[in-house]
Amino acid sequence: MLTLLGVAVVVVGFVIRLNPLLVIGAAAFVTGWAAGLSPVEILDALGKAFNENRYVSLLWLILPLIGLLERYGLQERARMLIGRIRAVTVGRLLLLYFIIRQVTASLGLTSLGGHPQMVRPLIAPMAEAAAEKELGTISDDTRFRIRANAAAVDNVALFFGEDVFIAIGSILLIKGFLQQSGIIVQPFELSVWAIPTAVLALLIQGTRVLLLDRRLRRDAPRAAE
């Protein structure tokens, strides 16, 4: 039970609004101490975990890079690009991104999309520009609805696309759970049966975003009033 003291440290630290990095660090040391580890052993465990998950350190490079690109006009350039394409609409753009996101996720390339590196700096501004090109000035409610749909497209495409990839963690988790219940299923079989689900997700979410165009056109006159 003492090992749960780390959870208490996190809760208290967030409640009194301390620096999150300090709170997590303190929680890690408290948990290690409660488990009977020495300070050196705690540092060794933290270093080992960091070394085995080196991809996490990429965030320290990617996020500042995205921030710099946004500061120097990434979103504006994305809007200008969409403004030059006549046939594009909010629904068509989000549907195209859904397909790309789901296909790449099914190949194991789950990091190619995402909210911080793709939706916020590119997809959402491009969708807003498509709406402005067709409807003129849009209200804040319309803008937030477009952003919410852009985020939802990324979530749904990733969730149902990654299960098609045979070596993804969710497939291995399902296999392990079923095996504990006496049901032997191979990862390849789970991957194959994930394909119909991914196709249905594409049809349902694709229809939803295409209907979004009609809803935006219907609400445009009300926003103008």
Description:
The protein is built from ten helices and no strands. By secondary structure, it is an all-alpha fold. The protein has two domains: 51 residues, no CATH class; 166 residues, no CATH class. Helix 1 packs antiparallel against helix 2, helix 6 runs antiparallel to helix 7 and helix 7 crosses helix 8.
Highlighted features:
2 domains, mainly alpha, 225 residues
How are the SSEs placed, and which strands pair?
Elements: H1 5-15, H2 20-34, H3 39-52, H4 59-71, H5 74-83, H6 90-106, H7 115-135, H8 140-161, H9 169-180, H10 187-224
Helix pairs in contact: 1-2, 2-3, 5-7, 6-7, 6-8, 6-10, 7-8, 8-10
Quick synopsis:
With 225 residues, the chain is mainly alpha-helical. The chain has helices spanning 5-15, 20-34, 39-52, 59-71, 74-83, 90-106, 115-135, 140-161, 169-180, 187-224. It has ten helices and no strands.
What structural class do you assign from the helix and strand content? mainly alpha
Number of domains: 2
Find the count of extended strands (DSSP E, 2+ residues).
0
Give helix % range.
over 70%
Order of helices and strands: HHHHHHHHHH
Gross morphology: globular
Please, what is the average pLDDT?
A: 81
> What's the tally of helices?
10
Residue runs with pLDDT of under 50 for 5 or more positions: none
Measured on Cα atoms, how large is the radius of gyration? 23 Å
Give the end-to-end Cα distance, rounded to a whole number of Å.
61 Å
- Sheet having the most strands: none
Q: Report the portion of residues in β strands.
A: under 5%
